[in-house]
Specification:
5-stranded antiparallel β-sheet, mainly beta, 41% strand, 2 helices, OB fold (Dihydrolipoamide Acetyltransferase, E2P), globular, 8 strands
Length: 136
């Protein structure tokens, strides 16, 4: 399935750089200890912007839900229809969700509750993005 190529900005660049090193990181506020993704300029909990750091995660999570796309409005994805849209809760903080098509999982056979781990796939010659795979 074709994936969009991210265009990092000043806030998201550390995340995308870590992906290129095959590491999954999220922001953490050292003031209130809240983890957050996607990256933002300030903590969504306490509003501080000077206490945000990056935390490397285990790259593991749990599938907490899914949907199936039968009719995407994105032209590049229409040939791939239908496809899974799994919601993955991060092991370090279940409030942080990532989304995945779960390569290799048949449409509709998403094992909710299963453990997954991050993998990184190339979307260009110089950019990897996170994708999730079911742990056997």
């Amino acid at each position: 399935m074709p994936r969009p190529i991210p265009v990092p900005d000043a806030i998201s660049k550390p995340f995308w750089d870590a992906c290129n090193e095959r590491r999954l990181i999220v922001q953490v506020c050292t003031m209130c200890d809240r983890k957050q993704f996607p990256p933002e300029a300030e903590c969504r909990e306490c509003g501080w912007q000077f206490h945000l750091e990056w935390l490397e995660t285990s790259g593991r999570g749990t599938i907490v839900g899914f949907s199936i796309t039968y009719d995407s409005r994105i032209m590049a994805w229409q040939e791939e229809q239908p496809f899974n849209n799994a919601v993955v809760a991060l092991e370090e903080d279940p409030e942080i969700n990532f989304f995945s098509n779960l390569p290799g999982v048949p449409v509709g056979d998403v094992p909710v509750g299963a453990t997954v781990e991050v993998d990184f796939i190339a979307v260009s010659d110089d950019q990897l993005i996170p994708e999730w795979k079911v742990v056997e």
